[in-house]
Amino acid sequence: MRIQMGTFEVPFLIRMQRTGVYQPFFQLSLLTSAFFFFGTAAQAQFSTPAPHAVILDYETGEVLFAKDANRAMAPASMTKIMTVDMVFEALRKGDVTMDTEFYVSEEAWRRGGAKSGSSTMFLDLKTNVRVEDLLRGAIIQSGNDACIALAEGLAGSEEGFAAQMTARARELGLDSATFKNSTGWPHPDHKISAVDLAKLARHQISSYPEFYPLYLENDFTWNGIRQGNRNPLLGRVRGADGMKTGSTEASGYGLVGTAERDGVRRIIVINGLGSKAERASESRSIMEAAFSQFDIYDLYQAEQVISDVEVYMGKAETVPVKLSAPIRMGLHISERDKVTSRVEYVTAAAPIQAGDKIAELIISAPGKTESRYDLVAANDVKAKSIFGKAWNVLLKKIRG
Predict the structure, then answer these.
(1) Which three-class secondary structure state does DSSP give residue 133?
(2) More confident residue, 117 or 78
(3) In Å, what is the CA distance from 95 to each residue of 98, 99, 102, 153, 276?
(4) Which CATH class is domain 5-41+299-399?
């Protein structure tokens, strides 16, 4: 039975993930929402000239910063992270080994080789090449010929492989992704969002730790031609160990990058910049900011009782409500004093069982979608007897 709506603010503890220090927050006023302050001066908000950008915390999957991150975009050679992921999965399943050899077809040689004018591994036509070498050609040299050879070797055709890439991406929850090739070659329907690229990177790092170190290699020589890793973070940003650059006229200059420091890993994605130099400069700046200007805050603990909610016709007048799981949120340090929290509830009718959803906790923060969390009854509340219910109705009539 729905009797009465209500909202009120609640105090909570915030803990900075890296320091482990809890700081208490107290109710400030009887408004429908309340503000909680760290007592430090707000710093300038973070910004970037990149048209698309994401900073993701690896451990929690929390998006720390996003700029036009959900709109599907042309990913250029950052596509190759998905191509490589398909190969890693085939290796894990035992469908192929690192020593399996794939044939370099005329299609792979013509559209991705030296004569194509695109990034290439310089594969020779009608040769057989080991999967391990093709992976290095795709990751380090960004070779289109290597990607096409891998696609044809695994699926029979690049078109069929691209369909498998899309299907696999959807299985991983990357709903913005549609792949039309294995290389990132421009196609109007070949797209993925920046946030989904970040999630893909997180999946690959966690799922294939035995293969991931390939991204850290500085150079690779094939056919007598040595090419360096194109990632501008490697060797220049502390802790950087991957992942992939990309650029076409349609996409601009982009990068998926990641670094780990003192057990904390961040993943960044940028796209749409105007030059290689701007990409290098901005990627380094964003990665440094990812560690120095953002953090994960533990707002509430699991099983924490949030408040009491009124009960209608119950032997108890109220029931405590609690969270089932902890709540974390990634924030820029200048936004720590702008988090708001409130409870929305409906007066619940007895009987109530522990675990019944009674209310919702709503948390708001700048630049983030309002988040809602279920609040459940912490204990049972029995209904009043028939006499008790009648007496309750009589009292309400007397009181008007």
Answers:
(1) helix
(2) 78
(3) 10, 12, 13, 11, 37
(4) mainly beta
**Cα–Cα distances in angstroms (integers) from residue 145 to residues 58, 103, 153, in the given order:** 31, 11, 12
Q: What does DSSP assign to residue 33?
A: S
Q: What is the mean pLDDT of the chain?
A: 87
Tokens 């219910």 correspond to 389
More confidently predicted of 90 and 5: 90
| pTM recorded for the entire structure | 0.83
Half-sphere exposure (Cβ direction) of 28: Cα atoms closer than 13 Å? 14
Q: What angle do CA 16, 209, 242 make, to 5 degrees?
A: 70
The Cα 283–Cα 372 span in angstroms is: 33
DSSP 15: E
- CB under 8 Å to 286, separation ≥6 — which residues? 48, 50, 53, 55, 268, 270
Is residue 272 left, alpha or beta, with left meaning phi > 0 and alpha meaning psi from -120 to 50? left
pLDDT over 90 percentage in the chain: 72
Query: Which residue reads 């040689």 in tokens?
Result: 109
Q: How would you class 287 by CB atoms within 10 Å of its CB: exposed for 0-12, middle for 13-18, buried for 19 or more?
A: buried
As beta bridge partners, residue 9 has: 342
For residue 346, pLDDT beyond 80: no
Domain ranges in the chain are: 5-41+299-399, 52-292
Count Cβ atoms within 10 A of the Cβ of residue 299 and give its class: 0-12 exposed, 13-18 middle, 19 or more buried: buried
Domain with residues 52-292, CATH architecture? 3-Layer(aba) Sandwich (3.40)
Structural contact between residues 217 and 138, judged by C-beta atoms closer than 8 angstroms: no
Task: Label the pairing between strands 52-57 and 5-9.
Answer: unpaired
HEC sequence for 61-114: CCEEEEECCCCCECCHHHHHHHHHHHHHHHHHHCCCCCCCEEECCHHHHHHHCH
How far apart CA 1 and CA 21 sit, in angstroms, is 42
The answer to whether 350 and 370 have CB atoms below 8 angstroms apart is: no
Buried b (16+ CB within 10 A) or exposed e, 345-361: bbbbebebeeeeebbbb
